[in-house]
Specification:
The complex is a heterotrimer of chains A (51), B (237) and C (252).
Chain A (H helix, E strand, L loop, with lengths): L6 H42 L3
Chain B lengths: L1 H32 L13 H28 L2 H33 L7 H22 L3 H32 L8 H4 L7 H44 L1
Helix pairs in contact in B: 1-7, 2-3, 2-5, 2-7, 3-4, 3-5, 3-7, 4-5
Chain C lengths: L21 H29 L1 H20 L4 H34 L2 H6 L5 H30 L6 H25 L5 H12 L1 H15 L4 H30 L2
Helix pairs in contact in C: 1-5, 2-3, 2-5, 3-5, 3-6, 3-8, 5-6, 6-7, 6-8, 6-9, 8-9
The chains are: A mainly alpha (51), B mainly alpha (237), C mainly alpha (252).
């Protein structure tokens, strides 16, 4: 019996298997950047406060 | 304090590098070393990531189960973070497993979905942990949120094996015939030893990946916590 | 003024306590039962006065049956197949009404605080609430089953079926009471309970429907017995877990 050509399915599968975790990691990086920005803002406000 | 921070950052960086290397090797093994399977063709290679990811998702929920128990005993915020982070990662792995499994099933067994006991239970398990996250979302008080989540993390985990047995027992009495016969639907292909090597290496790498994700995500969570504390201090000052 | 420093008096709780004597255990037990009873009695009499909950559960159940009648084309053979399923879907949906309400009052009026102050193990509240929920669900079933009998033209008053109804309801209410105590604090209060409960209650649903179905067609014992076992195992495990976990839910 001839082995069917299922390469496309494999590619689709691995695209998803790599794609989703990569998106997840990107979401971390975005969130980290936002949090660090928040810290900067908070520290600036804290410094400006005692007047 | 500075030195300690550097050390843990360094450890995390090493872990990240090691994980990346392992994953590259594993991917290489899957694409170039593993033999081509006779019956299904290339799509069978999905198996090498699909199964470890599914197993590790269950490991993630088990970690949450343990973290929940430890949290209720110790009331340490750390364990609450471990529990919720592990659920998040577990769900990412769960989605990866289900979608990759579906993509594999289509050419191999001519169906996108099957209601076999394992997959049905797995889906129910996913819904339990989605509910876990929704419960956390809905509770404002952090202490109450942590307690409730821990209780549900325990209840949910215990229910999974019981659910599996009940559905499996039900299905053995009334077997569901979908598409092809039952043996191939069980994922039937014989593993030769190169396949075994690739599989176990992949399993190892993905488990390391889980812990790597957990460590990184926990660090992010601690950062978020610190921001919340700073905000609170600022508002009360 | 001289300040005399003294060792603080040992706290009563820190004194080494000997385990209760047999009569001491009995007193603890009766106190516990009294606490359970008072929780149950409070909810029962409250319901007796307003009768809101029971009538809501009853009407809702009948409406669900009606909807199924229109949604599913039921010839005689189909009716036999789905009767058990419809019965339990109805029970599960109506049950969430009762479970939700069982803690809603406590949260809104803070009436749980008095119970929490009592020197009894907190799990007494759990059992009191559980018995209340069980009572309401079974009362509704008592009315629904005969109605079902008529609508589906199937004899539903078999004793074994009543056992299944009892065991299934115990399991469902057992987990449901614990989860309701948490769901009531959520922002999305009413919908949170089904989201938490349904996936965890799947074994009850599967076992109860299979057993009920087998009983209705008078299948042999091998088809029924194991499902009863599963129900009993589920009930024991989850009531034990809920019993231990409830403390953590209601603590202040």
């Amino acid at each position: 019996m001839e082995t069917p050509d299922t390469l496309n399915y494999m590619i689709a599968g691995y695209l998803f298997l790599f794609g989703l975790p990569l998106l997840y990691i990107v979401s971390w990086l975005i969130r980290q950047r936002n949090l660090e920005k928040d810290i900067e803002v908070i520290q600036t406000i804290a410094q400006n406060k005692p007047q | 304090m500075e030195k300690h921070m550097d050390k843990s950052t360094r450890t995390l960086q090493i872990l990240n590098v090691v994980t990346a290397v392992l994953m590259v090797i594993a991917t290489g093994l899957v694409f170039f070393y593993a033999p081509r399977e006779r019956v299904m063709g290339e799509v069978q290679r999905i198996f090498y990531f699909h199964v470890p990811v599914a197993w590790d998702s269950m490991l993630a929920f088990f970690v949450t189960f343990i973290a929940s128990i430890v949290y209720l005993r110790s009331r340490s915020r750390w364990w609450d973070m471990v529990g919720s982070t592990s659920v998040e990662i577990g769900l990412v792995f769960t989605v990866m497993a289900i979608v990759s499994g579906s993509i594999w099933a289509r050419p191999a067994w001519n169906t996108w979905w099957t209601w076999d006991p394992r997959l049905t239970t797995y889906t129910i398990m996913a819904l339990i942990y989605v509910a876990y996250l929704m419960l956390r979302q809905g509770i404002e008080d952090p202490d109450q949120r942590a307690r409730f989540a821990a209780v549900y993390g325990i209840v949910g985990f215990i229910s999974v094996p019981i659910t599996f047995f009940s559905i499996r027992w039900w299905r053995t009495i009334h077997p569901v015939v979908i598409g092809n016969g039952s043996s191939s639907a069980q994922g039937g292909f014989d593993m030769t030893s190169p396949m075994r090597l690739v599989f176990f290496f992949s399993l190892f790498s993905i488990t390391v990946l889980y812990f790597c994700f957990l460590a990184n995500r926990l660090r992010l969570e601690k950062l978020a916590e610190r921001v919340e504390q700073l905000k609170a201090k600022l508002l009360s000052a | 003024m001289s300040v005399v420093s003294r060792q603080p008096e040992p706290d009563i709780k820190e004194l080494p306590q000997s385990p209760p004597s047999p009569s001491g255990y009995w007193l603890l037990f009766t106190d516990y039962c009294r606490a359970v009873g008072s929780v149950l009695w409070k909810d029962f009499t409250a319901e007796l006065r307003s009768k809101e909950l029971l009538s809501a559960m009853l009407v809702f159940s009948l409406l669900v049956v009606l909807i199924f009648n229109f949604a599913l084309e039921l010839d005689k053979a189909a009716r036999e197949n789905v009767a058990a399923g419809v019965l339990w879907v109805t029970a599960i949906f109506a049950g969430t009404l009762g479970l939700n309400r069982s803690f809603a009052m406590e949260k809104d009026r803070g009436s749980l605080d008095g119970l929490l102050l009592a020197p009894v193990d907190r799990s007494a509240i759990y059992f009191g609430k559980l018995l209340g929920n069980l009572l309401f669900m079974l009362l509704v079933q008592a009315v629904i089953l005969p109605v079902f009998s008529i609508l589906f033209n199937l004899p539903m008053l078999k004793p074994l079926l009543l056992v299944v109804v009892l065991l299934g309801t115990i399991g469902y209410a057992g987990v449901g009471t614990l989860l309701a105590s948490m769901a009531v604090h959520s922002r999305t209060r009413d919908v949170m309970l089904p989201i938490l409960l349904f996936p965890v209650a799947v074994p009850v649903l599967v076992a109860a429907v299979r057993a009920s179905g087998a009983i209705l067609i008078s299948a042999p014992w091998e088809d029924i017995g194991p499902w009863l076992n599963l129900l009993i195992v589920y009930d024991v495990i989850f009531i034990a877990v809920a019993f231990m976990a409830f403390d953590y839910v209601v603590e202040e």
